[in-house]
Amino acid sequence: MSEHVRSAVPATWYADFFTELPNEFWRRAAVPELTTADVGFVQERLGLAPGSRLLDVPCGSGRHSLALAALGHRVTGVDISAEAIGHARRAAATAGAEIDFMVADMRDVPRTGDFDAVLCLGNSFGYLEPADLTVFIAAAAAALRPGGGFVVDFSAAAETVLPGFTGQDRVMRTGDITVEAAIEYDVLTSRMLSRYTFIRGDERLDATAVHHVYTSGHIGALLRDGGFTDVTLFGGPDDAPYTMGSDRLLVTARRGERR
């Protein structure tokens, strides 16, 4: 990949990427069965007590927050996309759910030390530059009470994306939205760049997403260095073990005792 292509993608690409058209595509693509499976995994693996205080970051359009609130949990959702937060607030109002939705960077979560769990779902863990990722991990730890749970959902772990990687273009459709995707892997920075074209009627939006690729071992080390213990890897919400070629990595961990 050329230096021009690498430099053309800003480090904070996610600040402007999640506008209405991309958000609406993923709202449609995330069918209810996926949310149900994720929430079941979180409930079981973290052993959430009724009325637990949860931080969902980044929460996107609120699908996990809404499902967890429906189970009686007290949820705070944080996302940088004002469009997504607006959608989440409207959905919560329709459902009669009391959820605190905030527009903020995922590094700027409430560091109150009293959340029972922090959830980083939806494959957002690799958005940040490596140095900023350590800031997010520290923020997540500071948000949690001692022993509180952390869940990371990541589909861009090296053991998932690199075996057999071809970068083959693909086309995705949901309703009247078509997405053309071209994916490249930058070996110099261990980044996967997904160049999307979103099409709906006469609308056309070109946008590039970046995922920094980490090995599962590196992720575990980052969490332990950030104050987490009991780091456990799963290949999906069905509790399958994470292995080479698994489609998805789910990590659970616990906040250690305060030093």
Automatic annotation (TrEMBL):
What is this enzyme's class at the first EC digit? transferase
- Entries under Pfam families matching the protein: Methyltransf_25
What sections of the protein cross the membrane?
none
GO biological process terms on file: methylation
SUPFAM superfamilies, alphabetically? S-adenosyl-L-methionine-dependent methyltransferases
Enzyme Commission identifier(s): 2.1.1.-
Record's keyword annotation contains Nucleotide-binding: no
Q: Which UniProt keywords apply?
A: Methyltransferase, Transferase
The terms under GO molecular function for this entry are: methyltransferase activity
Domain spans labelled Methyltransferase: 55-148
> What is the name of this protein?
SAM-dependent methyltransferase
Source organism of the structure: Dactylosporangium cerinum
Species lineage: Bacteria, Bacillati, Actinomycetota, Actinomycetes, Micromonosporales
